[in-house]
Amino acid sequence: MLLFVRERLAVLAVPKTGSTALAAALCDRADMVVRAPPRLKHVTLRRFRARLLPLVEEAGITGIETAAVIREPEDWLRSWYRYRQRPALDGKPTSTRGIGFDAFVRAYLAETRPPWADLGSQARFVAPGRDGRGVDHLFRHDDPDALIAFLESRLGGPITLPRSNRSPVMDTALSRETRAMLRTARAEDFLLYEALAAP
């Protein structure tokens, strides 16, 4: 999570949407950079507004707007799957080593998930709290130009995003049946993503 006081902007770090690259590009300009622990780095909109924003406002900083990036839901899962294939997780409960992508997605959709498929939802991450206010500025992961144009306008000056956390290329085929199950079970994620203008 990044906070820019003068610009009155908080950039939330939705997991697997390029938040590490964004932090690398903007950390020198930000007044607050939360890199760890993951629960704070990836604070949801609701938690940000309920817990962190009041602390900021107590310091006299008001009018903070939020920005976030979301990814096409199947591609978001594909990124998680590849990320959990990395050798550092070999032998750990969250490793997807030896598990096919189709099986990973089905496990993610199951009522009881194994640790390697226990993930949240992008729609829930950016869901409004009690005030009913959603993210003020929401961008698609596959349209970085829109995000960069917004940030350059808001923060002033050019921004170059480095490539970070690149996952290995591998087979991530999904059966038609599993894809249909995913679209039905995570309809809110697809609707949120598809409501944003395509690049």
Detail the topology: elements first, then pairings:
Elements: E1 2-4, E2 9-11, H1 19-26, E3 32-33, H2 38-41, H3 45-58, E4 65-70, H4 73-83, H5 101-109, H6 122-125, E5 137-140, H7 144-155, H8 176-185, H9 187-195
Parallel strand pairs: 2-4, 4-5
Antiparallel strand pairs: 1-2, 1-3
Strand content: 5-15%
Domain tally: 1
State the CATH architecture. Answer: 3-Layer(aba) Sandwich
Anisotropy-based shape: globular
Give a short summary of the structure.
The protein has 199 residues and is α/β, with parallel strands linked by helices. The protein has a single domain (2-195), classed as Rossmann fold (3-Layer(aba) Sandwich).
Question: How would you portray this structure in words?
Answer:
Helix content is 41%, strand content 9%. The chain has 199 residues and is of the alpha/beta class. It has a single domain, classed as 3-Layer(aba) Sandwich (Rossmann fold), CATH 3.40.50. A five-stranded mixed β-sheet has the order 3-1-2-4-5, with helices on one face. Helix 8 crosses helix 9. The chain is globular.
Give a quick set of tags describing it.
about 200 residues; globular; about 40% helix; alpha/beta; Rossmann fold
